[in-house]
Amino acid sequence: MSFWNRKKILVTGGAGFLGSFVVDRLIRERTVRQENVRVPRSTSMDLRVWDNCIKVVKDIDVVIHIAGRGGGIGYNRKYPGRLFYDNIVMNSQLMEAARQEGVEKFVGIGTVCSYPKYASVPFREESLWDGYPEETNASYGLSKKMMLVQSQAYKQQYGFDSIHLLMVNLYGPRDNFDPESSHVIPALVRKFEEAVGNNQKEVVVWGTGKASREFLYVEDAAEGILLATEKYNKPDPVNLGAGREITIRELANLIAERTGYRGKIVWDTTKPDGQPRRCLDTSKAKTEFGFEAKTSFEEGLWKTIDWYQKNRNKISESN
Fold first, then answer.
1. Is 70 exceeded by the pLDDT of residue 141?
2. Which of 1.10.472.10, 3.40.50.720, 3.10.450.50, 3.40.30.10 would CATH assign to domain 2-171+216-242+278-295?
3. Running DSSP on this structure, what letter comes out for residue 127?
């Protein structure tokens, strides 16, 4: 708790999915006063604008940089240029502004998409540079990877205290359920829920279903970020994940069962699977700052579906 004492913290993306849980934990469990947590909104504080980056880091002690532009496979294929530009500009400018302001610590949130397409499973941090990322999300993964390069360069030249966390796919309440930009779990939850409501006999899912993914429950992810902020200071990146994987076919069957869908699942093999497998070696996070995921996948998935069912009318109206 002493780490957070009297510190002023900037959480970019703090009103979003992951960021809102980080802010909740800061206030509820780290007893940080609400007025000491700054949460800029993209509508009024676009971090692609240099002057805004200068403003948001003013008098800040710790930056937890979660904000970014991202989405599922379809979104990555449609907007690779936007994803690269928006993320690399935000990341680079914010870190430079933080350095100039004399911020004590900068926590950059990276992504599993930075790993090579055919990295050995489970992905170890040491294999991050062993090849090119999977093509459908390469521009996003590389834009985040450059934040790691910047972090290490700033530590070497300026002694700037910054760390980089490689985040696996997240899921949980408050996720993005917009069909255009959502990731696989919220996309499937919404698709099966709507199929049940509309008495559809078929649901079409992208790919073959053979690809596997690892998923980290959002509240576990928030705790991992805060533990790393408190205890980790090395230049090397660290994986944050649950250390277990599931195929997309198994995932779709689980969600269909939970939502009460009894129709046919059709696999559209003309659409890409994305990276063949994703599963992280999470041993470094445990060794360096004592992080282990606590929430079982089934428990987290049920919580996610229950939250969507309670909020689907509001979600449908917004997108």
1. yes
2. 3.40.50.720
3. G
